Amino acid sequence: MPKDHGIGAAPKRREDVRFLTGAGNYTDDINVRGQAYVYFLRSDVAHGRINGIDTGAAAAMPGVVRIFTGADFEGVGGMPCGWQVTDRHGEVMQEPAHPILAQGKVRHVGDPIAAIVADTLEQARDAAEAIEVDMEELPAVIDMKAALADGSTKVHDDLTSNLCYDWGFVEENRDAVDQAIKDAAHVTTLELVNNRLVANPMEPRVAVGDYNRGTDDSTLYTTSQNPHVIRLLMGAFVLGIPEHKLRVVAPDVGGGFGTKIFHYAEEAFCTFAAKACNRPVKWTASRTEAFMSDAHGRDHVTKIELALDADNNFTAVRTETHANMGAYLSTFAPSVPTWLHGTLMAGNYRTPLIYVNVKAVFTNTVPVDAYRGAGRPEATFQLERVIDKAARELGVDPIALRRQNFIQPDQFPYATPVAVEYDTGDYDATMNKLEEIADLSGFAARRAASEAKGKWRGLGVNCYIEACGIAPSNLVGQLGARAGLYESATVRVNATGGLVVMTGSHSHGQGHETTFPQVIAEMIGIDESMVEIVHGDTANTPMGMGTYGSRSIAVGGSAMVRAAEKIINKTKKIAAHLLEASEADIELKDGNFTVAGTDKSVDWGSVCLAAYVPHNYPLEDIEPGLEETAFYDPANFTYPAGAYSCEVEVDPETGKVTIERFAAADDFGNVINPMIVEGQVHGGLAQGIGQALLENCAYDETGQLLSASYMDYAMPRADDLPFYSVDHSCQTPCTHNPLGVKGCGEAGAIGSPPAVVNAVIDALHSGGKTGVLHIDMPLSPDRVWAAMQ
Amino acid sequence: MYNFEFEKPSTIADAVAALQGDEAQALGGGQTLLPTMKQRLASPATLVSLSGISEIKGICTGDDGALCIGGATTHAEVAAGAGAYPALADTAAHIGDPAVRNRGTIGGSLANNDPSACYPAAALGSGATIVTNARSIAADDYFQGMFDTALDEGEIITEVRFPVPEKANYQKFVQPASRFALVGVFVAKYADGVRVAVTGASENGVFRWTEAEAALSANFDASAVPDAPAADGMIADLHGSSAYRAHLIKVLTARAVEAAA
């Protein structure tokens, strides 16, 4: 019987009432009295030198408050990068300046040249058309390998080249890996592209800057996954505003998927301009503006080699990746192809030797940073594709080949050759579960049925592992992070027993307002409705690092548990006093404190009331009140893992792929709310399938963005997707956080692309197209058809 | 969007008069024009809405048996009301999304002549007659290239007359992002021959595939569809090469014949 309460129950999401009835409070819903609007004049060329900007006529137009250009930001900090990567030669990465508005050059289509603040948005747009920019167009650098060629045009004139860094990992293993590949009985090689994506949250980015002349306080309302991080970065590194004079509010946020982690120029601009103009300043991105200014995702070009011995044991993996950084370094961009990517290259397997080389490259394109999965999908895709290709080359069953090389349950904790230690896992268990829920034994019959109607059916299976719950601060500090990655929570108990949890995590679709109360309810034995979650405002939440990397329950939830434990310890002291018993004998169950072995009890509400009306209270031992804060810094990453399968039909005449079945067997450790977990997996699968079949952010050779609207950027729609079979009953709890949880937000997006591609290749082989060994994503009909020819 | 004047006449004559104004532009359902204006890519001084003219709305059958559809009739109305010509109703039922179908009009679509739109294939494939306030234009003379038609400045489509074929079918292979036709083929079999019209494929907009018409007029069977036309002149973009589009023309023509037969 499923629980109806606490951990493991599946109450509906309480936040959905306001989201689904139009009662949400999104940033664009916030209007500050007297606000002006900003319109950004953006570059329509990918690379150009600004020889002059004439704003004279525009400034005189109706409603114009002020026009800003790069010159207004001389002496103001540029957009900071939060992670410094040291390359294989011991050199730190090249880190270009990133001004709020272009100074001297524009470096991608969409780079802001000027910002027009006016009484209305239409007036600002009118004025923008009257600005004359003397632009000398320069050759654009788009292709990464061309960007690294001698004599290439440089994106940044003051850097030595377009190479950001040349990272090797683990550098000491390089020679041994080379030797193992030479000595191998079989080596499978695969070259592939991990396509550039645009996150496309339903809500575009919005920023409202406000300044109080009377108190010298600045406030920024913004669409962020981590308001404290924005406050720190923008305050300390860009605008020089101390954190106590700066409030950042991220209210309801309509999806982030990573792209709302980063600190963006528009946020800094609105905060700066509000003070400069002494008026609130609001910016709302149009969708096309989002396409050319939101940080993009993925965009790797990779060659991977898998070495096997004569018994088909994996002996080494060597990969070389070119990772596109775009024109500037977005906040966490350098970490994505390195520490979030190379460290996952062991996958679920015992491969003893691994070497990962990543060359990060500047190009005249929108900056690239973390997008759902961030580095881990890129690692999983190449590894699971090359294993599939190896199985095909060797004529062995791809599932058996994987099983043979799995890390075994008795090997945990398992230290990989790429510097991480998996705490728990059971990969055969999830594979067994997958075979069951996907009905893999029935595939042959389904293939025959497809063939009878003229379609080729293929089956793709793969595993994945990810490192999430990021991350131990001391470790990431050694790896170049310029931030800690703890999380925080304050638990405030009111006099009548209700609780407010102020969390540093941010919820923008994850359902924290539902799941976090389930944990508190379980711990105290009260109803979830007694717990309220507050997040998103630096003025009333403790310093938190925000929501990304599937970290909220694993890190933020752990902080909340620690704070709640402090509360419970204190309430036990109070209860012991009220019951005239020893604290050691007090038990808390179902919202009642009892003295062990007696019928003496006092309820939760009475104890809370005593804390705030301390007439009969141990004032000599403890303070009145019930409010506790905890910061939790994880001891390790968490390692969700699983096995996915996809069945497709390919239309031999048109190359069109349809997904007929998709199954996901995940091990997320303990699960707080299975309905929300399932929803997270569904969303991840939609985005992973979207990457595999539909989504493609494309530039032409001059740097024009070809997919700048939904007319050309294909988002997955409901009828592109199948009904999923999803299971998370295989649970090996995390050993190092109090809830035993691992995180589930990114798994679907990480695990699904290789399943889709493996399935399409399998379908083509079943149709006799045995020469097709790989097709680059997205597997659109024209690409599949071209591969068949 | 720039500012503009807005007029909503109730008669054809008033609309024609209003369109004589400087930089006046007729507005059908606005499903292309309004997004274009929002992006400031079009800036008419006056929009003349045709949606208030009741005499150019609705569906009826002419004395010659042709299905006559008023120029301001929405796709949804055609989908529901063109039962006398099922292939045409089905075509309308799959244009765009519900918002497009409830606002967009047949006259607006044909006047715009988007190279990937569905209605141009239906009109050309049916040998329809485009009736305006001034004259009647045969479909063969009407479509003159991508976004180009025989309409004069200020000329309004009042009606489109579709001869009803013995058999017909429209096959649309959608572009994955926009879900316009990557290629669409409309096949109609009349007593005097077969017409095959192709949208989405050619750089010159909708066209008749005459080789297929000849072959299918002789033998209306999918096996009679000739080899794919040459890829020269076919659109090549992010979503498909010209060779792929040429290939789809053959595949979709055969499927249309099968579905129609």
UniProtKB/TrEMBL annotation, chain A:
InterPro entries linked: Ald_Oxase/Xan_DH_a/b, Ald_Oxase/Xan_DH_a/b_sf, Ald_Oxase/xanthine_DH-like, AldOxase/xan_DH_MoCoBD1, AldOxase/xan_DH_MoCoBD2, AldOxase/xan_DH_Mopterin-bd_sf
SMART domains: Ald_Xan_dh_C
Ranges where the Aldehyde oxidase/xanthine dehydrogenase a/b hammerhead domain occurs: 21-139
Origin: domain of life: Bacteria
Keywords: Molybdenum, Oxidoreductase
Molecular-function GO term, any one: iron ion binding
Name of protein: Carbon monoxide dehydrogenase
Organism: Pseudaestuariivita atlantica
From TrEMBL, chain B:
FAD-binding PCMH-type domain mapped to chain residues: 1-167
UniProt keyword annotation of Oxidoreductase present: yes
Entry keywords, A to Z: FAD, Flavoprotein, Oxidoreductase
GO function term, MF aspect, one: FAD binding
Signal sequence range: none
InterPro entries with a match to the protein in the record: CO_DH_flav_C, CO_DH_flav_C_dom_sf, Diverse_Substr_Oxidored, FAD-bd_PCMH, FAD-bd_PCMH-like_sf, FAD-bd_PCMH_sub1, FAD-bd_PCMH_sub2, Mopterin_DH_FAD-bd
Entries under Pfam families matching the protein: FAD_binding_5
Domain of life: Bacteria
This protein's name: Carbon monoxide dehydrogenase
